[in-house]
Design a protein that fits this description.
The structure is a homotetramer of 139-residue chains.
Chain A lengths: L2 H11 L3 H5 L2 E6 L4 E6 L13 H19 L3 E10 L7 E12 L2 E9 L5 E11 L9
Antiparallel strand pairs in A: 1-2, 2-4, 3-6, 4-5, 5-6
């Protein structure tokens, strides 16, 4: 994938301040997969010293948003479903999104969030809604 | 509800840094309901200028955590389900949690997040898992 | 609610053969709530002798369909979410549906299924999609 | 996989009368995947003449139950999530289950239900709970 497209995607999502302040960055995106990542600091922890559940949801939802808006903008989240698996600390967490299917305005997208040792922190499934706009915003 | 208990609850959750940095505060909690709230600033917005979806999930999950841990600590989130309803800006958002049922280790809890004009931003349902510990941590 | 409308609703759903063969009947429906019910026989049981999980989902989804199509036909289920609570036998089970909210084409509807002693068997949340048709089919 | 094990699995689930009356049969099961199938007759249809949503859930939940109880009995469904994709008629439908992950008592399992032409009818995600029993029931 050309550097130009990922730079355009990063530029588009710079306006998402919640994600920016959470320290989440786009690692890669193509038609098959999006990968986003965040360095974990004290600001991301819950009362038990593990990565906070809302942070895990946020990074998963962002991976979904990056993939789906790369493939067919504009796609918004209608429903999100998260199952928590392991509660650990980590120096970095990574969310990987793949699209399970698309039918018309509806998409289903799966995301796995992992710790730096590969442990699965959570798995998510998102139902997205595609509004009819061309992909030109990333060109 | 006595001021003493809500102060103990606030103190307990001070260690949740993600929630603290998101500016979320506990308004009230008793055996029936928890209410939490956040002033919305530029840091909470997505690329469309509305309250970011991960922020909405985070405040809903926190309302659940406050209620459930007040009623029967320690309760953790196993699964979360969020349906987005209205995407708007707002000066303040509020999440209200009620427990639908509890059976043994399992609880189901509903949360509604509203804007300052009362518009519903999202509705969530959480499946919680109660670990067996006394309520002494709030005394 | 007039007898005429519930008869029209029953007539409309007679064409749902899966529900008919499952023995599910409409007890009542108005703008606030739908109640459906089924006598439980050996045909409804799983390998443990309790009401089968698919039967519980089916009766819950039907309560949703009756309510939502009474209020604003045609409404179809987009997503369903079921949490199982108690696994018991029962001579009769009842599903009660209420609409949590509607916004444009999207609705969120909650259903509780109970045994004859009132024990909660499962709770469900459905996301419905309203296609734009008049309510004339029930007149 | 030996014929002996699939026959033991079929024998175990013969006691599930709801599934039996729905005409659902086990096609294959091993540690990676379970496949179940049903011939569709008039009894499986909704008011629109397409495969009824509760039937789709039931066959998906059964594929989950077959796989999970083959791998680690006894596993019960705690939560189920279904997204409907295509509403069609079909002469036969097939549900394929794979286990996404297992951690202790908790499993997450994905199921896809397809029509005879391969069209995806629905996708499901199940959260299972594993009770600690040996696999001896299938030997």
């Amino acid at each position: 994938m050309s550097m130009k497209n990922i730079e355009a995607v990063r530029k588009f999502f710079q306006a998402d301040k919640f994600v920016t302040y959470a320290g989440i960055e786009i690692v890669s995106v193509d038609d098959d997969k999006a990968v986003v990542s965040a360095e974990i600091t004290e600001r991301h922890l819950n009362a038990n010293g593990t990565v906070q559940g809302g942070m895990l949801y946020t990074i998963a939802d962002f991976a979904f948003a990056v993939l789906e808006n790369y493939k067919h903008p504009i796609t918004v989240t209608q429903n999100g479903n998260i199952s928590y698996v392991n509660a650990v600390g980590s120096s970095r967490i990574t969310a990987t999104a793949t699209e399970l299917l698309r039918k018309g305005h509806n998409t289903v997208c799966d995301v796995t969030v992992t710790a730096d040792d590969g442990a699965v922190l959570c798995v998510c499934r998102f139902n997205g809604f595609v509004k009819d706009l061309p992909k030109k915003i990333f060109e």
